[in-house]
């Protein structure tokens, strides 16, 4: 059978059942979906596994995770994959918006909100064929478009669509007998995780709430300038308490 190249419009011969091919005229990589013929790109990975693991440890040591996670978490497994997504450019007035839909039904957090630099795209090539890290899409183009409609996107304004494989490092780790998963974007080093050991907020609420009550009582029971001295002493105590909590939570 023959299909039209989405880049140059030339007739390209395809074998029945073939999904990946290259235009012999303009060398564009093409993906054949049951409902659409689109460009097929690979997003370059800018970090290796060592750098990805370092990014993960830095995130574990950050302000949103429980104290000591970077030292106590034990990596139980890791995998590098090129995950397939449907990539859409959509005209919105004088601007263009990018929308992403996963092309595999995998519960990966943050996929739809990824920022993908189009300048780092390259066409899928013969050297990529047979690479086990490249996962085949199972979600049809038409299904991805239906998801866009549910997000109130006017699909008639789609100006470009493509199948893109993005590099992801998937880390599994254990912390205090619980298993977690974190994903490192191989193109940016950004961490994506929906569940992780987070800081306990209650101690901070107790310190803040207690300080507010003390300030209120001091203001109601003392006159100026005595209350000013009481405020200063209370503020110092609150700061010490906050530092104490931060070092242990």
From TrEMBL:
The keyword Transmembrane helix applies. The chain crosses the membrane at residues 202-222, 228-246. Keywords: Membrane, Transmembrane, Transmembrane helix. This is Zinc ribbon domain-containing protein. It comes from Candidatus Methanoperedens nitratireducens.
């Amino acid at each position: 059978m023959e299909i039209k190249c989405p880049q140059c419009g030339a007739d390209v011969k395809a074998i029945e059942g073939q999904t990946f091919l290259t235009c012999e005229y303009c060398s564009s990589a093409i993906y054949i979906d049951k409902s659409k013929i689109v460009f097929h790109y690979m997003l370059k990975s800018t970090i290796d596994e060592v750098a990805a693991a370092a990014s993960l440890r830095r995130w574990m040591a950050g302000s949103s995770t429980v104290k000591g996670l970077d030292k106590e978490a034990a990596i139980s497994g890791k995998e590098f994959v090129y995950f397939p997504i449907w990539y859409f450019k959509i005209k919105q007035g004088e601007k263009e918006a990018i929308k992403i839909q996963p092309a595999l039904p995998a519960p990966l957090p943050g996929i739809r909100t990824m920022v993908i630099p189009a300048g780092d795209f390259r066409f899928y090539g013969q050297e990529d064929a047979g690479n086990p890290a490249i996962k085949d899409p199972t979600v049809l183009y038409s299904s991805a478009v239906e998801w866009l409609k549910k997000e109130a996107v006017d699909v008639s304004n789609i100006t470009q669509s493509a199948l893109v494989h993005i590099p992801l490092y998937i880390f599994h780790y254990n912390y205090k007998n619980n298993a977690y998963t974190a994903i490192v974007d191989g193109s940016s080093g950004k961490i994506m995780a929906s569940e992780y050991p987070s800081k306990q907020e209650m101690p901070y609420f107790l310190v803040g709430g207690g300080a507010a009550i003390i300030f209120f009582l001091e203001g109601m029971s003392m006159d100026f300038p005595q209350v000013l001295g009481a405020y200063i002493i209370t503020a110092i105590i609150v700061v010490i308490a906050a530092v104490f909590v931060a070092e242990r939570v």
